[in-house]
């Protein structure tokens, strides 16, 4: 698994594409948080990082599928997937190696956003007046969200040899998991008739819960379950493609 992890990690940063993807994520956050008047923290009147944690999931909808879209699609396209399957590696080792490498890249993209915390803290009228507990919880929630999107992206990449198709499938599935259930719960037919359970089925409900600074075991179990399910589907998809030749 470690060999797969190292290969995938090096491959992402072997071209300028990897660096551009992370830079675009940071640039988009910076523009929305400090430049555009409608979302600028400088015009908010109070010190907090809520706009970052509201904005980042929407940027993740595009960033993470871009990171994961070549995970398996390039292996199928180049014909190396069959060779990889003959190595002394289990299917879970291959899947987890790819997943952990992509999740590490997501983590790397989040680390520079700590600069936003430092900047807001320095610009606030009262230093160290930020809700550190809430911010830590929001970062944990954002990392779990990123890992969940990563698992979905890796699964999407296992479905096709076309990286663009894998990207589009990942964006669509991530969007449905994040916004779809919440939007469906607001349909009049479901209001008061299971709307709460529909919200619980979506990622946004659990992400918002953790972002309040309260680490609930139910939210952790939810994210872990979705990640495991998507990785299991990835393994099943790979096995089926190899068996079918």
Automatic annotation (TrEMBL):
Pfam families: ABC2_membrane_2
GO molecular function: ABC-type transporter activity
Membrane topology designation: Multi-pass membrane protein
Entry annotated with the keyword Iron: no
Top-level taxon: Bacteria
Transmembrane residue ranges: 12-35, 94-118, 138-156, 163-181
Entry's localization field: Cell membrane
GO cellular component, one term: plasma membrane
Keywords associated with the record: Cell membrane, Membrane, Transmembrane, Transmembrane helix
InterPro entries the record matches: ABC-2_transporter_component, Motility-assoc_ABC_perm_GldF
Name of this chain's protein: ABC-2 type transport system permease protein
